[in-house]
Amino acid sequence: MPVDLKNSATAWGPRFFWKGNALYQQSAMSPDIKWEIPQTIDVINPLSSHYNAQARYAKTLYRDGKTWGDVPATVDARRVKLAHDNSRMDCQVCHSSWVTSCFGCHLPMKANERVITNKFEGTVSRNFTTYNPQVVRDDVFMLGLDGTVKDHRSQSSLVERGRRRLAEQQSRVGLLAAADRFVRRLQRAGVQPHFPHTTSGVGTTKNCTDCHLSAQKDNNAIMAQLLGFGTGNVNFFGRYAWVGSGTGGFYGVVWTEADEPQAAIGSHLQKIAYPDNFKKHVDGGRILHEAYHHNSFDIFGGHVVQDVELRGEYLYTAAGSGGLEVDDVAEIDQKGFSQRTVSAPVSPLGQRTYVRTPCATSVALPSTLLNDPKRTHNPVNEEQPISPTYNYAFVTDLKEGLVIVDVSCLFDGDPQNNFLHKDAVFNPDGRLTGATKSFVAGRYLYVACSHGIEVVDINEPLKPKLVGEYSGSFLRNPVDLSVQFQYLFVTDEAGLKV
Predict the structure, then answer these.
(1) Count of domains forming the chain
(2) What's the pLDDT tens digit per position in 355-385?
(3) pTM (2 decimals)?
(4) Which range of residues forms the domain containing residue 52?
């Protein structure tokens, strides 16, 4: 039931009261504290002491982007004419100064330690979690639409004693009970529009270019963040950086502290939180020393690791003549397990997590998170369908062009169906021959080839379409590329091109 704030009260009288034409709020903590609540009508009235020209501009701007100053008389006229009408936009969109984020709520936990819980239950737990306030962020502000009830307006580590990391940060699916749907859902990432309760009218109010493209084209990264395109903000970065080393296989390199706050080694945060470790790192020439190696080979010999991508408990590698190879890296910090990286925990009859191609050069995934298009949706929650592209890995190959592999068996919770196949090969008229790298951006896959850039529509992953290309002299043998919102960043033999 909605609460009528006009009728709410404190221990010393009404919570809200008028004094002349001014509305005041009474503190619930002290009878001596009260404050005025400026009204919107006063903020946009030039004759009021609360008048603010910027607020008037923002609240009365028409959809033509030019007219402002007056509010249309009727509700229907406001809905049609105003750029930010109340029926389509909540106030907190522009007035939220910061938002909570995944980074502060998903924390490491130590098992088998008898400790008092950090909340108010007064109970004792066998799992200890440190609460580190990393939630205060202004760099993960994204826009979303509320559900019908709001009128459509706008994982952690578990460490056991003995240093056995039972879960090394990334979601682990393959080793969970297949029937445990609830746990599996917790390991997916979801974004839910919410009111962060950090409303502010001074200093942190959003400006036009926080939500709209600027005329100077200088807010590309801000817009990418706002719309969730190409910043990697919701991708996962763990304690290990995974590095392919050609014929040397690959390495998991430790690049952060193990405890909270999980500072990057050599960073300003490490200097503050771990001064001794920071000094040791600087005195040692800023070299990272801890890394764990794994060869990439089968019974036919070694392979050349060209590219790596981490997703869930698996590391996807483009291994030259080995094609796409997927290794289990979940036990990287598990001292109770015999091998840090596992190519095959069972016989070849039990799983096949590789697909052979002539010469695989890169592997691209839509996300490092375990977004599952096949999961059950509850219609009541109005969950939007997840694009089928999240089921697939996109492998570039010098000869075959683009090889598409369904890898959803690796995150469906069933360890008995982990068999990968070459589901589609795409190389129309040889346009993708010599492909060296690809990048997924929404429904498009951008592919670097020897002659330039090819753009492939992968909205229907097994029916890809070539929809664009650039083959001009501006690019000279491109080898790598990345996309952020409006721009494609490419490295070629002459350097970085945009």
Answers:
(1) 3
(2) 999 999 999 999 887 778 887 777 787 777 8
(3) 0.83
(4) 5-81
